[in-house]
Design a protein that fits this description.
globular; Rossmann fold; 283 residues; binds S-adenosylmethionine; 7-stranded mixed sheet; 2 domains; alpha/beta; single chain
Length: 283
C-alpha cells in the first residue's frame, strides 16, 4: 500500500483538480445553494476569482480534466479517442485563440488591414471541431477560411458547428493531411498548431504551409514550448503532448525548423496558456 504521507500528497493534487472543477462549475445554474456556497469557498481559499466566470476558458479546462481522467483510465487515450463532447469543449477554448489571433497577433504582423479586405484567406491547419475557424470568419467577415484536418470524425462535428454559425459559404472544410495542401499561393495567414503533430511531421508541415502562403504571407506556429524556467511545467507539457502524439519544442528548436523550411523573417508573438507559445514566420 502507498504510504500515508504519499497518499496525502496525491490527495492535495486532486484538490487542485477540484478547484479547477469549481471554477468551471460556477457557470452552472443547477447548483444547489449548498453546492454554490462550497464552490465559492473553495475558489476563495484557492485564490481563484468568484463570479468572474469565463465560459470558453472554463470549457477548455473541463475538457482537460476529462482528457486527464481518460488517460489515467487507459487504454491509451489521446485526442482522437475522446468523446465528441470533450472535443467540442476543448474547441470552445479555440474561440479565444481566434480572438487572440485577431486582436494580438495580426496587428503585430501588419495583417489587420489585409484580413479585413474581401479576398483575404485564412488557413486553419487541424481545424478540429471548427470553432477557431468559425470565430475567425465572424471576426473577419469579408475573409474566407479553409480548415483542413486528417481526422474524419472531427470534421463531422466541424460541419455542424459551421452550419450552426451560418458561415458555410465562407468556411471550407477539407479532409486530409496538411502535407496534402496543393493550393496556389493563396493564404494571407496560416495557423499551424505544431504541438499536435509528431516531431517527424513538423518539417513537412512547415514546408507544405510555406508553399501555399501568398508571397509575404505569414504562418503562426504554435508549440507548448518546453522552455519554462520551472522543470515541472516542462514535464507536464511533455506529458500532455506525449499523450496526444505531438511534440513540445523549445523556441530555439522551432526557429531551427522554421529556417530549414525556407521561411524568412520570424517574430515571437504574445501568447496565453490556451494558445501555447506563438512564433510567426513570413513565407
Ligand atoms: C486541438 S485540435 C484543434 C482544435 C480546433 N482548433 C477546434 O476549434 O476544435 C488539433 C487538430 O489537428 C489535427 N491534426 C494533427 N495533425 C494533423 C496533420 N498532419 N494534418 C491535418 N490535421 C492534423 C488533429 O486531427 C486535431 O483535430
Amino acid at each position: 500500500m502507498l504510504g500515508a504521507q504519499m497518499q496525502f500528497e496525491l490527495s492535495r493534487l486532486v484538490d487542485a483538480a477540484w478547484a479547477v472543477a469549481a471554477y468551471a462549475a460556477q457557470g452552472r445554474d443547477d447548483l444547489s445553494p449548498q453546492q454554490r456556497a462550497a464552490v465559492e469557498r473553495a475558489l476563495t481559499l484557492s485564490g481563484l476569482p468568484v463570479g468572474s466566470h469565463d465560459p470558453e476558458f472554463a470549457a477548455a479546462l473541463t475538457s482537460q480534466l476529462a482528457q486527464a481522467a481518460a488517460f489515467a483510465e487507459g487504454p491509451t487515450k489521446g485526442w482522437g479517442d475522446m468523446p465528441d463532447e470533450v472535443l467540442l469543449a476543448q474547441g470552445r477554448g479555440s474561440r479565444q485563440v481566434a480572438d487572440w489571433i485577431v486582436d494580438e497577433a495580426a496587428p503585430v504582423l501588419g495583417l489587420t488591414g489585409v484580413a479585413e479586405r474581401s479576398g483575404a484567406v485564412f488557413l486553419d491547419v487541424g481545424v478540429g471541431t471548427g470553432q477557431l475557424a468559425v470565430r475567425i470568419a465572424e471576426r473577419w467577415p469579408r475573409a474566407r477560411v479553409v480548415g483542413v484536418d486528417r481526422m474524419e470524425r472531427v470534421l463531422g462535428l466541424a460541419r455542424t458547428v459551421v452550419d450552426g454559425a451560418g458561415c458555410a459559404d465562407r468556411v471550407e472544410l477539407r479532409h486530409g493531411d496538411v502535407t496534402d495542401l496543393a493550393d496556389d499561393a493563396v493564404y494571407d495567414l496560416a495557423w499551424l498548431p505544431l504541438s499536435f503533430m509528431s516531431p517527424d511531421a513538423i518539417p513537412k508541415a512547415l514546408e507544405a504551409v510555406r508553399r501555399v502562403l501568398r508571397p509575404g504571407g505569414w504562418v503562426i506556429a504554435t508549440t507548448f514550448a518546453a522552455d519554462s524556467e520551472l522543470p515541472i511545467v516542462n514535464a507536464m507539457s511533455d506529458l500532455v503532448t506525449a499523450v496526444n502524439g505531438g511534440s513540445s519544442l523549445t523556441q530555439e528548436d522551432l526557429l531551427v525548423e522554421i529556417r530549414a523550411a525556407g521561411y524568412g523573417e520570424t517574430v515571437a508573438l504574445p501568447s496565453t496558456p490556451l494558445t501555447g507559445a506563438l512564433t510567426a514566420a513570413r513565407g
